Amino acid sequence: MISPTLPLFVRARGPDEFWRKRKIFKLAAHFRGRRRNVYSITIRNVHRALAYATKGRKLKKLDMKALWDTRVQAGCEQYGLSLETFKEALARSNISLNRKVLSDLAIWEPRSFEALVKLSRERAAIDCMPDLKERSVMNQVYGLTNWNKK
Fold first, then answer.
1. Model pLDDT for residues 11-41, shown as the tens digit of each residue
2. Which of 10, 18, 36, 62 is the most buried (most CB within 10 A)?
3. Which domains does the chain have, with CATH numbers?
């Protein structure tokens, strides 16, 4: 009887190669033409697609961060307050809300957001923080007319 040697095991891949290739072909199932059927082409395109997917997830997070900041900034500008002052005053008041929650409050619960703006405006006035803008018509409509700028 001849015992199989290591080079013979390396050459005869058998079912392992089938399943390894099958994983790659499954990831390429939505591709067209040779990109889907030829392994050497498929593996390159699948790796590139996975790299783009990774970048896309990071870019999505950055886009959402920018969107939330824009929404909160628009809500703050209605009441004559800058975004930086608003966040700093909330932090000094020990109110820790993230961008997403502040954005949702600004859009879906304007009265709750107005209460946060009032709190932060008062804190900013007490601490003499910059960027407190003049009272606008919106401030008068929402009851911030009694605020005295120092």
1. 666 778 889 999 999 999 999 999 999 999 9
2. 36
3. 16-59 (no CATH), 61-130 (1.10.1900.20)
